[in-house]
Design brief:
This protein is an alpha/beta fold. Among the domains are: about 45 residues, no CATH class; about 230 residues, Vaccinia Virus protein VP39 (Rossmann fold), CATH 3.40.50. The chain has 19 helices and twelve strands. Strands 5, 6, 7, 8, 9, 10, 11 and 12 form an eight-stranded mixed beta sheet that branches. A four-stranded antiparallel beta sheet has the order 2-3-1-4. β2 and β3 form a beta hairpin. The protein is globular.
Length: about 450
Amino acid sequence: MGERDAYANLLLPRLLRDRGVKGRDAALATELTYGTLRGLGTYDAVIEMCSDREPDPDVLDALRLGAHQLLRMRVPPHAAVGTTVDLVRLRVGPGAAKFVNAVLRKIGSRTLDEWLPIIAPDAADDPVGHLAVAHGHPRWIVSAFRDALGSSEELAELLEADNARPLVTLVARPGRSSVEELEAAGAMPGRYSPYAAYLREGDPGQVKAVAETRAAVQDEASQLVALALTRVPIDGDGDGELWLDMCAGPGGKAGLLDAIATHGDLARPLDDAGAPGEEGAPEAFPGGARVLASDAQHHRARLVWETTRDAAVITADGTEPAWRPGVFDRVMLDAPCTGLGALRRRPEARWRRDPAGIADLGKLQRGLLGTALDAVRPGGVVAYVTCSPHLAETRVVIGDVLARRDDVEQLDARAYLPEVGALGDGPHAQFWPHRHGTDAMFLALLRRLP
C-alpha cells in the first residue's frame, strides 16, 4: 500500500525487474499501465454509462484495464473480457466477476469513436469539455494548456502528443560519455541536443554508461535549458566561475552542468582564437567552473551526489540560503511546479494535481526566484525553469518578480537555443510535446544588473 502514491515511471520498471517480467510481457504490462492511466477520465465516463452502481476501487481499476484493452488496444474482445473477469474472480470474488463481465460486454458493444458523442460534451457548445473527455485530461488542465498556447488551434494536437508513449531519451555527459557510445549500445542520435540519444527499446539501466552515471535518462528539453544557461556570455573567460543549482534533486540538470563545468561544451569546441566553433552560434563554455548543487530534501540531495562527479552537494532550503549573496556567476533554478509538462511520462499526475495548489506553488516559486537573483553576482545569469507551461507558474511569476526589481533584465532565451524553432514569441522559451517531441519545459534567462 505504501507504493500506491509512487509515480508509474519510477515504480513500474522496478516491479518488472523484481518479478522477472521481460520482452513482450513487459511491453504489454507497460502499455496496460500507461495507457490506462492516460485514458482514465475517458474510461471512467464510459464505465459510468455502462454500470448501474459505483464499483469498488479494486473492481473499478480492473474495469479501467479492460476498457483500455477494448477501446484502444488490438486485444481481441473475448480475451480482454476473459482475462479481466478471471483477474477479478481471483482477487475479489465470483460476484464481482459477474458484474465486471456484464459491464465490459456493454463497453465492447461500441468503439471509442462511437462512445465519444455519448460521453463527451458537444464540441461546438463546449470545446474544452469535449477535448477533456476525448483525450483523458482534467478540464482545468486543458484550459491551462489553451491559455499557454494562446489559442485552441493546436490544443487537440498537444493533448494527443501528451497521450503518446515517449521515447526514452538519454544524455551523454560531456567528457564522460558520448552519443557515439550510446549509439553503440543501440540508441539513435537526438533531434536537438548535441548530447541526446533516443533509446528504441529496453531498460536504460542496462546501458553501461547509464549504470556508471556517465550518461543518464534526461528529456531533451531538460538538457537544452541547462545548455542555454552555459551559453550566455558573462564577464571573464569562464575559468574559475562558480555555478549554483538551487533545487537540484534528483540530479539530471546538475549532472549535465557538472560535466560541462568540468570538461566544457565538447559538442561545440572553441577554436584557437577563443571564438565559437560555429559562426553565429552562442558561446561554447570552455570549462573550468565549479558547481554547488543543493536540495531541501536530504534524500534528493543524496541522489544528486550519486549522479555527479565534481559538484559539491549540500542539503539546504533555497528560501533560507546557506550561501552568501552575490557570489555565483550562473544559477539554475528548476523550480518546484505542478509538472504538467511531463504528463507523457507521468500520466497519473494529471489526476493527482489540484488547481487549488497552484497559488502556494506560485508563492514558493517567487520566493526561490528572488533568492536566486540575490545569489548571482552583477553580470551573472539566472535560468528560471519549470516543467509546466501553466501561465501562473511561468510568465506570471517572471512578470511579478521583474516588477519588484530594478536590478534585473530578461534576456531572449531563444537566442541561446538556435537549434530549436517554434519556441514562442519570447523572450522566454517554451517547449511543447507536439512541436518538439519533448516535455513542455519553460525557460526564462535573467541577468543581474550592476
